[in-house]
Give the backbone structure.
Amino acid sequence: MCGIAGFLNFKADFMFRKDEYNHVLKNMCDILYHRGPDENGTILSKCYGLAHTRLSIIDLDNGKQPMTAVASGNTYRIVYNGEIYNTEELRKNLCELGWKFETTSDTEVILIGFIEFGIRIADMLNGIFAFFVVDENNKAAYLVRDQVGVKPLYYTIFEDTVIFSSEIKGIFEFPDIEPKISKKGLNEVLSLGPAKTYGCGVFEGINEVKPGHYIEMTYDDIREHQYWGLTAEEHTKSYEETVEITRYLVEDSIKRQMVSDVPIATFLSGGIDSSIVSAVCAKELKKKNEKLGTFSFDFVDNEKYFVSNSFQPSRDRPFVDIMINAIDSDHRYLECNNKDLFDNLFASVDVRDLPTMADVDSSMLYFCRLVKPYYKVVLTGECADEIFGGYPWFHKKECFDADIFPWSMDVSARQTVLKDELIAELGMEEYIKRAYNMTIEETPKLTGEDKTEARRREISYLNMKWFMQTLLDRMDRTSMCSGLEARVPFADIRIMQFMYNVPWKMKSGNGVEKMLLRDAMKGFLPDEVLFRKKSPYPKTYDPAYEKMLGDAVIEVISDASQPLNMLTDKKKVMAFVKEKKDYGKPWYGQLMAGPQMLAYLLQINYWMKKYHLSI
């Protein structure tokens, strides 16, 4: 994994002020250093500049970037972040076409593939990626993002110059690009956050390359194109055939994502998803007489304060222990205390450049820092719930019938502490409704499909386009902040496309969430884990943490100079801090309840101060 950044304007001459723009490239490298601490490189040409920071995973000695290739007198260059899991198939194909390779890196495969196939190479890639590639002689360049959106890529257009970066902060290193927030951006944070509209960078003028899209830049034009998307097709396989295909796809994806020139580990929560990934990895490593490293996460004294609820019915530790014994992994239990959890609330804003999922992000950021001294690459169970239908809102009738995002149905909870005039000015309900309808209208559907199954598609598509993206953002930023590469084998495009068309009665047989996945992976996991009721990522229930948050919020609103006071009503905030919090009634997802609202407010205040934002 890596960080990429740069700028391009085919009508400009950046060499005219080369010292200034070389300095810009250096600053871009410096601010993205955490994404690639092993080495970095820059290159400045007449009409573009490229910066790259590298985390060495494949071809440690020869995979340096920016990478250049010359063919038929044309010069091509690339900066790339990601991993391509069908690299060997593509390399073999290109070799058969007469190409020769100087490295074993996937970077070179993409670059040579681009020379041979043009931008069509994007749709041939199975992996996680974001890259910029330029055909210098023909004055054509492309910003490309993977089909699912695992790897981030942002850009802006300033006076005909396209400036891009893996993270928003890199764009702000370009001269005259200043962080600003508009009414739209505030709505993203207050009405939709910690989610955000795909394609939107929240800051004014900042755009995100959408998953499955690329930006084409020529001398005369800048255009956005979609090269991949889910399609609705009739499912004609029997249940037995569907189970067999699912098992093959899941196992194959995990095996492919084990490719690495450095040791790999997994995050193991004791839930079905991470346990499947860990079991397959452990089985493959044992063939080489190697033992899998695994990590589980919890909070200090959580056994004392944990309260079971419908969203989080059980603690992870007993199921982690079962899995460790079953797969014989080299396991480490990691715990986070209240102070580290609180302190990392603000660090998690730094890494995402936006308010985050509060302590859901801050704890993962903390844990990733603890994992990095042991491993550079980890595999996780992320995305299975969105693809296989694991979340409660796939199953609850009120969510099925609601004409709103099912993980954030109570809009009033977001407005509890805001100024009445701000609520009216933003038109929060209308903004949410437009965002929701946009996705509903673009949902791929099958002609003649009954209303119930069509609605299932909508909920599935909503989850993959919104909720899954928030979690992928979280996983990328919290891991890459420490130079740790996190891979998500369930987010394989083959799995996504196949499962999108599997009828709900197959996915959730007998009303059991993810029953298809459970049936497909029988034999890999002990039954206690295979049939465990879903329990999400852990969170703390320690009242001392809630008090810490409440005290901090009171301190902020008591200082009139703090930007949070531009948004909130002091009396409302005080009342909210004092009231008893319902941990089982989240306002976003499964984990963000009352305490997380306090944490989110603190993050918003910190974010506005950091970027000098005003309304």
